[in-house]
Amino acid sequence: MELGRTPHRLLRRVWVPLSLAIVALGVLACIGVSVYVGWQLTHKERQPITETPHDYGMTYENATFISKDGKTRLKGWIISPQKPARMTVVFAHGYGNNRVQENVPFLPLAKRLAAEGYRVVLFDFRASGESGGDMITIGVKEKDDLLGVIDYAKKHFHEPIALYGVSMGAATSILAAAEDGDVRGVIADSPFSDLESYLRANMPVWTHLPDVPFTYLILAIVPALADLDLDLSSPIRAVDRIAPRPILFIHSKDDRSIPYEESVKLYRTHSDVFQLWLTEKADHVKSFSLYGDEYVERVLTFLRSLENTSS
């Protein structure tokens, strides 16, 4: 009888540790993949600056701005109108892009605004384009970058300031306007309403990995490794500090990256002073490309409405 039980004891001695080892390796592999993907999300390859305002017949100045953190140098352009500027409009690009934002694209829109008398400031967020910094934080620290550009505009120009941002830049514009009361208004094209909740719902879209376990692991590991507080990138917590200053939300119902309901949630917080334009058949931040003249007219109408208001 004792001999008959020996194989079972040997199997238990082998298979229990082996099973535990396999589970441990699986956990470590998932953690490793999560760390790698998180690193990739915050360290995107920089997109080169492939065009300048000169390519669109505009004169411009190269400029260097300092982020509100006091150390990150940001590169950009200032496009001034031929006549006295009616307003300065600071453009804020999206995640993984730069001041050209080719998929919108920024420069043709900047030309339309400059022709109407608006000064346009375009710049690269940290870790993007030609700016300093080595980590994209999806709005957490980009807010300081935008506040630094706003400080520059207030120091060098006398006209009012408005913000125009797309995607991450739209969310960041809301965050910055909440902290700087001199911003007259914001045009937010396709923002998210809260970074953490958006990532929890849409991480598989970004990573192409299964929701379980990777979304949970990435959101637990990356903020700790990168010293990021995702709560700081929450436009829906910031809008109360903007109202009654206006925000124009633009979002396509067919956006496959950030659902249009994100803008709807933000708009509904102060629907008495905020505006919402929902487009159709346009993918993420493609409403300008698809709607062209109507897009420009809505933007200009909004900017004109800001000129006679005080911040």
Describe this structure in words.
The N and C termini lie far apart (90 Å). The protein folds into two domains: 1-42 and 195-229, no CATH class; 46-194 and 233-307, Rossmann fold, CATH 3.40.50. An eight-stranded mixed β-sheet has the order 1-2-4-3-5-6-7-8, with helices on both faces. The chain is built from ten helices and eight strands. Strand 7, helix 8 and strand 8 form a beta-alpha-beta unit. The longest helix has 41 residues, at 2-42. By secondary structure, it is an alpha/beta fold. Residues 69-206 form the Xaa-Pro dipeptidyl-peptidase-like domain. One of its GO terms (molecular function) is hydrolase activity. Keywords: Hydrolase, Membrane, Transmembrane, Transmembrane helix.
Q: Quick gist of this model?
A:
The chain is an alpha/beta fold. It is 45% helix and 16% strand.
Which shape, going by the Cα principal axes? Answer: elongated
> Which parts are unreliable, with pLDDT below 50 for 5 consecutive residues or more?
none
Any idea what the CATH architecture of the largest domain is?
Answer: 3-Layer(aba) Sandwich
State the CATH topology of the largest domain.
Answer: Rossmann fold
Helix content estimate:
40-55%
- Write down the CATH class of the largest domain: Alpha Beta
Q: How many individual helices?
A: 10
Listing every helix as H and every strand as E from the N terminus to the C terminus, the arrangement reads: HEEEHEHEHEHHHEHEHH
Work out the radius of gyration: 24 Å
Q: What topology, given as strand order, has the largest sheet?
A: 1-2-4-3-5-6-7-8
Mean pLDDT: 91
Number of domains: 2
- Strands, total number: 8
> Distance between termini?
90 Å
The secondary structure category is: alpha/beta
Beta-strand content: 15-25%
Biggest β-sheet description: 8 strands, mixed
Provide the CATH superfamily of the largest domain.
Alpha/Beta hydrolase fold, catalytic domain
